[in-house]
Design goal:
With about 110 residues, this protein is mainly alpha-helical. The chain is about 65% helix and about 0% strand. Helix 1 packs across helix 2 and helix 3 crosses helix 5.
Length: about 110
């Protein structure tokens, strides 16, 4: 089984190319890297990453949003949402709030700048 090899390739691609920054990025788009069927691509995430495709992508997007909130506190949250593949600012708010136990993106900015 080449699952570990495929997982490594996908992980490296996600980190270097950041295709998840496109708001329309879907599981099937991983075929740009690996020409495999949808169910095997899903297995790479579920078994290789230990989580669903959507959760892995959400995690990567929130990491990128947090980086921008920290490095570019001048950017409004809606701009950060556009830049990180989230559909809108309220999704960034909800995700950040859930990820950081009740901290909003603006509170996260303030916390990181102090």
């Amino acid at each position: 089984c080449r699952l570990a090899e495929y997982k490594h390739l996908v992980e490296e691609w996600l980190i270097t190319e950041k295709p998840f920054l496109r708001s329309d990025f879907k599981l099937i788009d991983v075929r740009e890297l690996l020409p495999l069927n949808r169910s095997y691509l899903s297995r790479i995430f579920n078994e290789g990453f230990g989580d669903s495709f959507s959760n892995v992508i959400k995690h990567l997007r929130i990491e990128e949003a947090e980086r921008l909130l920290t490095e570019r506190p001048d950017l409004p949250v809606n701009k950060i949402a556009d830049m990180t593949g989230f559909s809108n600012a309220s999704v960034v708010h909800r995700t950040c709030y859930a990820t950081h136990s009740g901290i909003t993106p603006n509170s996260f900015k303030k916390k990181m700048s102090s």
